[in-house]
């Protein structure tokens, strides 16, 4: 009998506001998901959550209209997983935009720790109002750390159609799923942390428009502007979300790079433009055609378990600056999930990642580690695969294994939060942490899937690092945002594919037509790319600073 909002039997129902009246006060409640997995998003015919970026204009228009019709508009946004008390740049932009559109209460419900609060007094534009960037944990990683044990309950006092006050009640989890009130000392620590994490107030009176004019292109160039995109999905060598995909129709291949003009569209906030830094490999290698993809590795789990790599903390990324540069990909599953040998191979090492067998940046980084040498070589080079963080190992060093043989079980040993297997690919030298290649280009795609790879470099061969790319899926019905990802961060251990020479890649991409969008220096570029089944679609942007 409880009213539901933010989800429904279809997209229209999921995005519908809940209207409520109590003691003469009128309310409108909206909720949306700005996060993965894609399978959780409602569609025109399938149940799920209201996807924020897929209904961006609609949500803002509802907030504007409802603010004129009811006393209190409350918006809950499941934005992104984070373990930090301070909100991200994208989070601040979107939450403030909702406030500026007319929301009285904006609440984040995705962070795993309590986050900053941003109150607006009655004397401020849009006040009285409050933004709560994150209430903290209730279900996930409960006893992982002190921070994940803490949480907030917001108690709003509303009288005569006005938000009079918000009281932040503080909680602490005990022994899983048993919340209690924080002691005075604990409460002081929790509140001090979130108050210290508040974003700068100087920007509060500069509304973030949900519809900004397009940035003028440089002389002689025109731009296309993408629909607002979801922030990149961070998880870390941590518990990631599990995206799933629906393969679209496979149009005729097109590989043409061009800049075109979009007459009108919603513009995402321009991202900071990092200077193109000289990577350890300078100049960046030239791209060469890959005559035959090297998808030599089968998935480390069987089909009844999750087989998808997490794109939130992808190879070469830092998850938005939260973690060290990632040297592999993560595939999350419950602890104890069987792990399988990816190919016919020989076990080089199976054991603890200790000082005598250090495969990470320091001892016990991977906890239990498995390193195997594939029987199959690539262009005369020896191929090694590494699994990390296992709960247990079921093979020994020197043992021969066959493709699909059970070799270990998923865990979270070493530096890991949440059970998953960390997968790496190394060539020629299995012991060198600074000798890693993107596993997304080595893991065998699912049937009807391929991979996407490309370069973003300058004319003199310098790589652009951590530049955001938007990928749109093109179908007969139009375009839809598929992924947002970044070029590789600068790290001495990352190696582009010896032939492809990519500095950005996505694995597990449904075959079909895509548009890759890059925005740098106020100019937006795009390129259409075809991803064939079992193939690697290629894009390339050359942009000078």
Outline the structure in words:
The chain is mainly beta and 545 residues long. It is 8% helix and 31% strand. Strands 13, 15, 16, 17, 19, 21 and 22 form a seven-stranded antiparallel sheet that branches. The chain is globular, with a radius of gyration of 24 Å.
Total count of domains: 3
Query: Into which percentage range does the β-strand content fall?
Result: 25-35%
Oligomerization state of this entry?
A: single chain
Task: Show unreliable segments.
Answer: 203-280
Report the mean per-residue pLDDT as an integer. 84
At a glance:
The protein has 3 domains: 7-203, no CATH class; 256-290 and 447-542, Sandwich (Immunoglobulin-like); 329-437, Glucose Permease (Domain IIA). The protein is 8% helix and 31% strand. It contains 5 helices and 29 strands.
Topology, please?
Blueprint: E1 7-8, H1 11-14, E2 18-22, E3 25-33, E4 48-49, H2 56-66, E5 72-78, H3 89-101, E6 105-108, E7 117-120, E8 129-132, H4 146-149, E9 150-159, E10 162-173, E11 179-181, H5 184-196, E12 256-258, E13 329-332, E14 338-340, E15 345-352, E16 368-374, E17 383-388, E18 392-393, E19 400-401, E20 406-409, E21 420-427, E22 436-437, E23 449-457, E24 468-475, E25 478-486, E26 504-510, E27 512-520, E28 523-531, E29 536-542
Parallel strand pairs: 3-5, 5-6, 6-8, 23-29
Antiparallel strand pairs: 1-4, 2-3, 7-8, 9-10, 10-11, 12-28, 13-21, 14-20, 15-16, 15-19, 16-17, 17-21, 18-20, 21-22, 23-26, 24-25, 24-27, 27-28
